[in-house]
Amino acid sequence: LLGRLRRQGGYETEVEPDGSAALARLMLDPVPEAVITDYHVPGANGLVISRRARACRAGIPVFVVTGDPHTAKRAAGALESGIEVIAKPVDYASLVVRLRAAVPVFA
Q1: What is the residue-level pLDDT of the chain in tens, covering all 107 positions?
Q2: Any idea of the CA torsion for 27, 55, 66, 2, to the nearest 10 degrees?
Q3: Torsion angles phi and psi, residue 66, rounded to 5
């Protein structure tokens, strides 16, 4: 998914191997312009990553992906505005539209 965003969407992407690495990366400059994370990540779940991202950069767009519809429903109720839960399988075109609305691609 992130490779496709880089190739076709025009975005620069970074991939971290686990939740702990993602949390550590969010503490470094520059803070990413958006975060896409799975809900179930070894080392930290998507809610923890979302909250850390928002603590590091207020208003950062965050997309939490999950394959479990029950988790999606529970997570959506626990998240603040601007953090979206996306059900798997991810509709790539819909994600790009949401991402472009949140973070324009500059040529």
Answers
A1: 666 776 667 778 888 999 999 999 999 999 899 999 998 899 998 889 998 999 999 989 999 888 886 776 666 666 677 788 888 888 888 888 888 888 876 54
A2: -40
A3: -150, 145
- Write the CB contacts of 107 (distance below 8 Å, at least 6 apart in sequence): 10
- When computed from its CA atoms, the radius of gyration of the chain, rounded to whole angstroms, is 13
d(CA 29, CA 46) in angstroms, rounded, equals 21
DSSP summary character for residue 32: P
Estimate to the nearest angstrom the gap between the alpha carbon of 104 and the chain centroid.
15
- What residues form DSSP beta bridges with 66? 87
**Residues whose CB falls within 8 Å of the CB of residue 104, separated by 6 or more in sequence, listed in order:** none
Return the residue matching tokens 């529970």.
Answer: 74
What pTM does this model have? 0.85
Compute φ and ψ for 86, nearest 5 degrees.
-120, 125
- List residues bridging with 30 in a β-sheet: none
